[in-house]
Amino acid sequence: MKNAINILIVFAGLLLGCAEKQETAKAETDCKSTYFNYSNSDDQITGGIKMIPITTPKGTFKVWTKRMGNNPKMKVLLLHGGPGGTHEFFENFDGYLPNEEIEYIYYDQLDSYYSDKPNDSTLWTTEHFVEEVEQVRKALNLDKENFYLLGQSWGGILAMEYALKYQDNLKGLIISNMMASAPEYQKYAEEVLGPQLPPEIYKEIMQMEAKEDFANPRYTELVMNYYYTEHILRKPLTEWPEFINRAFSHLNPAIYIYMQGHSEFGMTGNATLKNWDVSDRLKEIKTPTLMIGGKYDTMDPKYMEWMSTQVQHGRSLTVNSGHVSQYDDPENYFSGLIKFIKDVDNGSFQ
Fold first, then answer.
1. Does 153 participate in catalysis according to the annotation?
2. Which of 95, 167, 203, 349 has the CA that lies 20 to 30 A from 315?
């Protein structure tokens, strides 16, 4: 009888243990993150990629987007630089935002590498690109409850212009590595950054610029080795990451030169953005805004800090980087970016 009782006790214990394991497994299943769950979504079969039709006065064209993750409250649309750059400049976001379960969307603007290329300069205006972003927003169901807009470099110009027209659609705004004034950017390049180069190097570069000898391989050599490694990405060229080199190889020079110009010392010549300036309109932006600058950036970091005081609800972040802050100083860049997004989301943003 005693042995029979012991057997019953052991059997009951096994049953209880199995039940507990089943409950634990169920809890783990219930708590499983849905961040990378694309099931039952219209872009599951494409892995998050959508070619979004954009209506323009010159016809309808498609732009490339790719959703990373899934978060109904925090969705960041990434506006790349250039103009004519690509989403590839942001690829190291994959190493930081997924762990925080922040959704982000890669996007190649019209005439950029992965999107349609009508190659029509009448579409190369800030007005066109603002409306393009608005059409992308609608297609992706982004709204003031979840929509964060991050623009870097030229993308920062576009983000500011978008906010000035459509800020009621935004939950948060991030301007990364872009001043609010092209003339001030050129002044900083000419008066501060240029003279920091070795005098003989700067003199030779300026002589080639005066002759508009931008196709000269020597110009590229000097700019890349002496300027880019100090103020774009602060590493020897041999240490630049593959995704940055790939992004540069995919840059559309036609739109870049048309809007930005040939020179790397500001916007010069006939560049259409040469006189762009919204510095006196920053006060109109009421959306919570983060201004990110780099200590060694081509954009004046002090000016970037000033910009954060001009918007109605601003925050400033200056990292130890050149223009490509997200790779130059990712630890400070992403910790500041993630804190801003989460502070806005939970209502603690000051």
1. yes
2. 95
